[in-house]
Amino acid sequence: MNCKEQHLPELELSTGQVREALQCLLHTILFIRSPGPVAPRDVECEGLNVTYTRIAGNDSSLSDAIQAESDIDKQVDDAIETFLQSLSQIGPELLSGCLTLSFFERRASRQLFGLVSHEERVVWEQWILRVIVNNTPRPISNDSASVIERQRIQDTAEGMLRTALMKVFEIAGGPLDHVPPVLYEFEIASAKRSDERENVYSRVTTMPPILNLAN
After folding, report:
1. Which one-letter DSSP state was computed for residue 16?
2. Which tens digit of pLDDT belongs to each residue from 60-119?
3. Which of 47, 48, 143, 163 is the most buried (most CB within 10 A)?
4. At what angle do helices 144-172 and 18-32 cross, to 10 degrees?
């Protein structure tokens, strides 16, 4: 089985937006790729004007396969914490990282005329989320320039997140030939993607300057 890679648009978020944005995307993907019937629950982000649907955490019908070894919430939150610890510096106040959500099934394979058997994990789909974290302090004063800048940061993050969600929905409505007709599991891993630092840094350094708040 060939592994299908789904690349989502890159996100650029402030430090306080990362957890909620990643929770939104990961839970949305897990909901649309659930291998069995599950109860939905709508969630309104607290720091972002975005609503998403996730698997209800107290749903007794949730399959053991998709739960894997622990609760979905814990897996997602632990993965996000690991991701935040693995970020790479790519510029002043800028960090970069990558999350990969993999879906796989377990298969028993036999070797040596069926005398030896072992279990293997076959990954059939991966969702790749690249994130730039901007640690630049937000303006906190109430002058007009600061208010405009805070709104710009907010609008930019929400726009990027909605674009990524639309991509998830677009993929969800596409071909499903690669999705196995059996119960399957998931795992979330993080990577530094250091091979792409130069490209990211080049893009960031050529961005137009933000408002000059000193005036």
Report:
1. G
2. 444 454 443 347 889 999 999 999 999 999 999 999 999 999 999 988 776 666 666 677
3. 48
4. 20
Tell which residue, 135, 134, 130, 136, has the closest CA to residue 194.
Answer: 130
DSSP state of 195: G
Tally Cβ neighbours within 10 Å of residue 173.
9
Q: How far apart are CA 144 and CA 81, in angstroms?
A: 35
What string of H, E and C letters represents the secondary structure of the chain? CCCEEEECCCEEEEHHHHHHHHHHHHHHHHHHCCCCCCCEEEEECCCCCCEEEEECCCCCCCCHHHHCCCCHHHHHHHHHHHHHHCCEEEECCEEEEEEEEEEEEEEEEEECCCCEEEEEEEEEEEEEEEEEEECCCCCCCCCHHHHHHHHHHHHHHHHHHHHHHHHHHHHHCCCCCCCCCCCCEEEEEEECCHHHHHHHHHHHHCCCCCCCCCC
Is the Cβ–Cβ distance between 160 and 40 less than 8 Å?
Answer: no
Query: In whole angstroms, what is the distance from residue 26 CA to residue 53 CA?
Result: 11
Beta bridge mates, 55: 40
Considering the chain, what is the average pLDDT of its residues?
82
In the block, residue with structure tokens 């890159």: 10
